[in-house]
Structure of Tetratricopeptide repeat protein:
Amino acid sequence: MRHREISAFSRKTNALLVISIGCIYLTFFHLLSACLLAGDFEQVATWAAGETAVVSEPAVPPVTFTEASCIYTSDEIDLEMRFHLAIAESLEGKYRKAVRVLGQLDTEDTAALYAAAMWNFESGDVEGGVAILEELASRSDAPKETSKYLAAGYLHLDRAVESEMAVDLYLSENAKDSYSHFLRGLAILRQNQPERAEHSLRNAGYDESQMTQIQQVAMQVPVDVAQRLGTITGTQAATGSLVDSRRIPDKNYNLTILFAGEFDSNVPLQPKFSGLGSNIDYEDYRFLMASFLDLQLLTSDVGNLGLVGSTYNTFQVDLNRFNIQDYMGGAYVNGLLFEKLVGSLRYEFHHTLVDESRFASEHRLTPSLSRLSTYGHTTMFYEFNPVDARAPALIAAQEQSAETHRFGVTQALYTFGGNGRVYAGYQYAETNADGSDFDRTSNMVTGRIERPFCDSWIADLDVRFVWDDYDNPNSLDFFGRPRDDDRLEVRTGLQKNFVRPVSLRLDYTYINNDSSDTENLFGVQFYDYARHIFSTQLIFTL
């Protein structure tokens, strides 16, 4: 009896085991078929490789949603299911995942487009959200808040004029919305028009003291570190935006062409050089053409590799023996070494001609490190610059071919949302020349400020001071003294950005070189000069 009971129990156990195994195989076959029909080959490959997870806790696992396929479908039920799955993810605060689950957008579904825009905003992809709202803005069934959030997005991207236009559209039907008045006030402040912004900020409920604080903050909003990283390395952070396919792709090149007319009060930089002591000034007008090309060959989220080239040609009206031609070609590589630390290496070769004859050729190799922060970046660099000069030399001491080792540090602070900046720098250089007249050490300090103001004008002021201490007695000095130069350079300008890609720039430059320790028997100071340059430039950025 006992044996028959055990045998019966064993048969029941075997039967249950066979049924269980069969159910497992049926389940696996059903899932495999469903994946194949849905085109989800990646999930099939994962199962085939045995990449499964066993979860023991909790006993009843929570419900999870499988990410939808990104293959485009016009099936209304599938689109609706994706939308609801995305909503479920957004309710848990997983906005990036909600965007991915939604997949390729159904451009006919206004509700899905609007939700996708909001999820892009929440996940930090403001450009993606703005692009979707721009598509919605012209639709009659778009939510009434579309223009308000579009204004907020424009403001975040520092497109202040468009922000004001969008929020005005919303306020035309919602005049009591205090937040929209606040947005309008900020947009006007970003255009540097504080008087006009007061009315909007008052309508938003702020008093005089609060408006002053708002103005100070609005005009000093720092540029995001990720954006500044993109500027230095030439890369763009991947955002996974839903509208990437509808955007114009980022260019892998930048081309600038410049035309200028200049008056120069001292073309050859030797206004007082004369053996007998009579002063000679060489002033003239010239036309100038220059171009610069930056071509990115490889670009990733952590760095890039590119080529650079430039041309520079001057055409003097009278003194054509001082026409200058300079041609440059080179390459660079930038890389993110650690968080907020960028390493760079740049090489340039210059070939310079004066009056169509070779004057000099030089190589510049510059490694550098830049540390990024919210408010600016700090850069340290070293430059190795050997120059092979063909300048006229009466004696060996005047040979100008040389090798220069330069070390420097710069600090930039971003102001006015990144459109302006304050810049300071220091450089130390040591030059070993073939001729003893040009062995020297140099120190330079630089300060620069750029400030945007109304109607897209930008004003800048650049001041630098250079001390050149020469090591050996100068061959032209009657008393055999070493040369010692102090040079002041001041440059100020205004630049107006017209319809892209055209800009106009007005410049004034003053240079004064004081070399009082070097003179001839008649008291003529060979290397003293003062120079005034007035320039009008037309710039095309393509």
